[in-house]
Amino acid sequence: MTEQERCILEERLHDVQRRIADAARKAGRKPEEIRLVAASKMNSAERVQAAIAAGLTACGENRVQELLEKYEQHAYDGADLQFIGTLQTNKVKYLIGKVSLIQSVSSLKLGQCIAKEAAKAGVRQDILLEVNIGREEAKHGFLREEVEAAAAALGELPALHVRGLMAIPPATADKDKSLCYFNEMYQLFVDISTKKYDNVDMDYLSMGMSADFEDAIACGANIVRVGSGIFGLRPYALTQP
Ligand SMILES: *Cc1c(COP(=O)(O)O)cnc(C)c1O
């Protein structure tokens, strides 16, 4: 990584952090209530470390294999590590003990598998439930009418702590439509917050990416997942020096 690349990365990160703080204030919230999780897929350990050195506090990875490789390279040292991608049950065991939060729990079966592996390791795993808010065939996640029952069912597993909801709404250039999805997510989040289920606490609402994190914050997000806005356009070769 050149000095110039390092500089650009630092500027992008600080710009995103500033925009998050502004969006929070505009929404009448405190900047520190919003957590920035950098989606670091396809960025080398060196680039992730550069972002952490510049003040990044949390990383989210999409692929187990990539996470494990970069973990070995100490990419995430000094930051919180979370999982945000599609997760197969046979890979769950590799994440337990490494990630503080699995954001992308998209089925009961996956939740149960995480509970089993967490119990084996003697830990309690924080999770978010992924909601397929746009009801898209090709996407994972619970339908909105399934979420509350799923939270209640997974909350019964003592090795799990359900901490909130995550969504990747349909990609659309129509701002009103995306605001609509964000608002629907917030409504669901608030609805479930008012219920009492064991091991279910609606602490986090994770939505918003590079293109729309300010809108998501305006609608109540308190975790935003930003990739290209920080790291620049993908892909970067993992082996990039
Ligand atoms: C890549 C990714 C993001 C960030 O996307 P950008 O548009 O690059 O900000 C957020 N969430 C998930 C689950 C991702 O895979």
Describe this structure in words.
With 241 residues, the chain is α/β, with parallel strands linked by helices. The chain has one domain: Alpha-Beta Barrel (TIM Barrel). 42% of the residues lie in helices and 18% in strands. The chain contains nine helices and eight strands. It has helices at residues 3-26, 45-53, 64-72, 92-95, 108-121, 144-155, 175-193, 213-218, 228-231, and strands at 35-39, 58-61, 80-83, 101-105, 125-131, 160-167, 200-206, 223-226. Strands 7-6-5-4-3-2-1-8 form an eight-stranded parallel beta sheet. Helix 4 links the parallel strand 3 (80-83) and strand 4. The longest helix is centred in the first third of the chain and has 24 residues, at 3-26. It starts with a helix and ends in a 10-residue tail after the last helix. The model is unreliable at 237-241 (pLDDT under 50). It binds pyridoxal-5'-phosphate. Pyridoxal-5'-phosphate is lined by residues 39, 41, 62, 84-85, 168, 209-211, 225-229.
Which features does this protein show?
binds pyridoxal-5'-phosphate; TIM Barrel; disordered C terminus; alpha/beta; 8 strands; 241 residues
Strand order of the largest sheet: 7-6-5-4-3-2-1-8
Helix run count: 9
Question: What is the radius of gyration computed over CA atoms, rounded to a whole number of angstroms?
Answer: 17 Å
Q: So, the CATH homologous superfamily?
A: Alanine racemase
Shape: globular
Distinct small-molecule ligands in the complex: pyridoxal-5'-phosphate
N-to-C series of helices and strands? HEHEHEHEHEHEHEHEH
Mean pLDDT: 95
Largest sheet geometry: 8 strands, parallel
Name the structural class. Answer: alpha/beta
